[in-house]
What we know:
globular; HIT family, subunit A; single chain; 2 helices; alpha+beta
Amino acid sequence: MDCIFCKIVEGSIPSKKVYENEHVLAFHDIQPAAPVHILIIPKKHIATMNDVEPGDWGLIGEIHRAAQHIARQEGVADSGYRLINNCGKDGGQVVYHIHYHLLAGEKLGSLVGK
């Protein structure tokens, strides 16, 4: 498999890690879209949100738990952050290994009404 995020998980591609447990890895995005831009990924390869199976829902919960921890760790939990999952080509997904973007560190524009 030629998945860049799987290679980051296995350690063959370096990353600037901010969080890791048995199931989840989080690291700084190399092309940040906000002052704080962290990618949160499961260590298990799942291509898209559409590929999440019933046995994976606990893993999705682990990702959200990691997001809470990271937001506190980065000092943005109280001021606010955005957690984004892009699914599929039209949803803006570029890397086909499910991942969430945690964006924060400035007032983010509204996505509602656009």
